[in-house]
Each structure stands twice: as structure tokens, then as C-alpha cells.
Amino acid sequence: MPKMTLRAARVNKGYGQKEAAKLLKVSNKTLSSWENGLTFPNAEKIKAICETYEVSYNDLNFLPNNPL
Q: How far apart are CA 25 and CA 16, in angstroms?
């Protein structure tokens, strides 16, 4: 199974960006920055992302512009 981007994981779960940012307790700007690969979440937020989106860390690609 190919890895999915943070955006794909969010959309697959049915969350809009504002809703997901609220659930993850970050700003929309921060979530957008993660989804665009401009910044990266810390370990605590990665755990929250995995729990919120119900995906494993190994299924996520944190570099959306990096072809795998």
C-alpha cells in the first residue's frame, strides 16, 4: 500500500482543514504548513495525527512533493 499524504489522510477521514486543526489543537496555518511539507509536526503532534486520522505512522508520507 502506498503511503498517503497528511492531506489525503485528513480527507479520507472526512475532516475539513478547520475541523482537523481544531481536533489537533493547532492553527489552520500550522496544519496547512504540515500538509504542504513546509514544516513538520513534532512527535506529540504526529501521535495525535495518527490517532485522529486513524492511520499508522508508517502509512504517512510527510513530504507531499517527494515522489515515493
A: 14
